[in-house]
């Protein structure tokens, strides 16, 4: 058995899972939050226990040191040399990467060049990589790209109808996101498909959300665009909309581009329409109490998803399977229900309300045997895909 760590660094956080590979057994997991603050939060789970500490965390390098020291102190590992590889989530790989790769100077430079396309993410991923390189200088590292799975799209699916010089000169095109999740779900979903087509519509519905159409395990189309702002409506993001909305708001309010961009990312979606919360549970509770804007927010969210499912049904020439996953998709039966109610008549779907209500955080079929398309709930696991790629590239 070889120990491999899956790493997901954000601008002020660092999530991790340590695996025994190739068995894919989780040894421990955790998160360091509020990096850069005196009241940072370190949580680690191991042996069925959970410990949380509040302490100063100056930077990502110190966060990595805290984690490695805790593993040594608790004898999760006896030496840092036991960690044989690290896999790092990278949001934006641009058109450079259609698969995971071992970090080297060229890979690092390409990820760095793509920071303008994902400024909050790619920069943080490189900071995390550098922090691990300092603590584990002899351990190979792998970059696992959110965008890689979507590189099989055709030009007509990823090109925006803008002056083509912007596409060529500035790499402005559809890249998508959540590719590691969509790849995992497409692999797990194959067992539910009959025949050779394996046409799936995969709904990764979390705080950030995207839908991908796959055929024979390859991405055909995906909803997120140049950045994670595109596609379906999300908890605080707009998703797709008329571009002139941006212009008109700027014109009537006088707000600058950066301010508006942040509002569309962080103050829109369920939060913006409801005025209540960016948490889907809060919005649902408010809707149940009679708040009309909260109900509108839920209905709008469901309509946008239903529209994309219909679009991808046409794009694939039919569908064998619809998958619900991620935070809302796995755990919120009501949100799945309001989507299914909007597509069932057109797509010949029938489902069991009882099965749907019971499918909370577990893999389950929620469609009826007579449904023309099978509908399933599958919990996603991006971390195991990261660990798997790190193991296969570095140790296998």
Features of the shown structure:
396 residues, alpha/beta
Structure in words:
The mean pLDDT is 92. By secondary structure, the chain is α/β, with parallel strands linked by helices. The radius of gyration is 21 Å and the shape is globular. The strands form two sheets. The chain has an eight-stranded mixed β-sheet with strand order 5-4-3-2-1-6-8-7, sandwiched between helices. It has 15 helices and 14 strands. A hairpin with a 3-residue loop joins β9 (199-205) and β10 (209-215). It has helices at 60-73, 105-113, 122-135, 155-158, 164-170, 179-189, 244-253, 257-266, 269-274, 280-288, 292-316, 326-331, 333-347, 353-358, 382-394; strands spanning 2-9, 13-21, 25-33, 37-46, 49-57, 83-90, 101-102, 141-145, 199-205, 209-215, 218-222, 321-325, 364-365, 374-377. α1 packs across α3 and α11 crosses α13 (333-347). The longest helix has 25 residues, at 292-316.
Topology:
Blueprint: E1 2-9, E2 13-21, E3 25-33, E4 37-46, E5 49-57, H1 60-73, E6 83-90, E7 101-102, H2 105-113, H3 122-135, E8 141-145, H4 155-158, H5 164-170, H6 179-189, E9 199-205, E10 209-215, E11 218-222, H7 244-253, H8 257-266, H9 269-274, H10 280-288, H11 292-316, E12 321-325, H12 326-331, H13 333-347, H14 353-358, E13 364-365, E14 374-377, H15 382-394
Helix pairs in contact: 1-3, 10-11, 11-13
**Stretches with pLDDT under 50, minimum 5 residues:** none
Major sheet attributes: 8 strands, mixed
Strand content: 15-25%
The tally of strands reads 14
Order of helices and strands: EEEEEHEEHHEHHHEEEHHHHHEHHHEEH
Give the end-to-end Cα distance, rounded to a whole number of Å.
Answer: 11 Å
- Total number of helical segments? 15
What general outline do the C-alpha atoms trace? globular
pLDDT average, as an integer?
A: 92
Backbone structural class? alpha/beta
Largest sheet strand order: 5-4-3-2-1-6-8-7
Q: What is the CA-atom radius of gyration, in angstroms? A: 21 Å
Question: What percent of the residues sit in helical stretches (DSSP H or I)?
Answer: 40-55%
């Amino acid at each position: 058995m070889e120990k491999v760590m899956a790493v997901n660094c954000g601008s002020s956080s660092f999530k991790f899972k340590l695996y025994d590979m190739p068995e894919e057994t989780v040894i421990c997991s955790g998160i360091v939050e509020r990096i850069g603050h005196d009241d940072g939060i370190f949580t680690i789970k191991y042996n069925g226990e959970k410990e949380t500490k509040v302490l100063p965390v100056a930077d990502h390098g110190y966060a990595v040191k805290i984690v490695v020291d805790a593993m040594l102190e608790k004898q999760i590992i006896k030496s840092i040399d036991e960690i044989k590889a690290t896999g790092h989530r990278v949001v934006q790989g641009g058109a450079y990467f259609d698969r995971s790769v071992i970090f080297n100077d060229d890979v690092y430079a390409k990820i760095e060049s793509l920071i303008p396309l994902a400024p909050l993410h790619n920069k943080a991923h490189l900071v995390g990589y550098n922090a691990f390189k300092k603590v584990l200088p002899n351990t190979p590292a792998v970059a696992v790209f959110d965008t890689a799975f979507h590189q099989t799209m055709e030009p007509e699916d990823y090109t925006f109808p803008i002056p083509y010089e912007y596409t060529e000169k500035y790499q402005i095109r559809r890249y998508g996101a959540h590719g590691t999740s969509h790849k995992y779900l497409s692999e797990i979903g194959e067992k539910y498909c009959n025949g050779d087509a394996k046409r799936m519509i995969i709904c990764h519905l979390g705080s950030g959300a995207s839908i991908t159409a796959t055929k024979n395990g390859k991405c055909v189309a995906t909803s997120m665009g140049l950045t994670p702002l595109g596609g379906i409506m999300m908890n605080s993001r707009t998703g797709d909309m008329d571009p002139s909305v941006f212009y008109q708001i700027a014109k009537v309010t006088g707000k600058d581009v950066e301010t508006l961009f942040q509002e569309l990312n962080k103050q829109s979606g369920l939060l913006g329409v409801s005025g209540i919360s960016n948490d889907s549970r809060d919005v649902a509770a408010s809707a149940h109490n009679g708040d009309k804007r909260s109900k509108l927010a839920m209905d709008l969210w469901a309509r946008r998803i239903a529209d994309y499912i219909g679009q991808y049904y046409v794009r694939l020439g039919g569908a064998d399977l619809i998958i619900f996953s991620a935070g809302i998709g796995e755990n919120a039966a009501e949100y799945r229900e309001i989507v299914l109610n909007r597509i069932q008549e057109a797509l010949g779907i029938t489902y069991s309300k009882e099965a749907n209500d019971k499918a909370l955080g577990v893999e389950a079929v929620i469609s009826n045997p007579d449904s023309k398309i099978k509908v399933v709930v599958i919990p996603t696991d991006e971390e195991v895909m990261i660990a798997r790629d790190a193991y296969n590239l570095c140790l296998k």
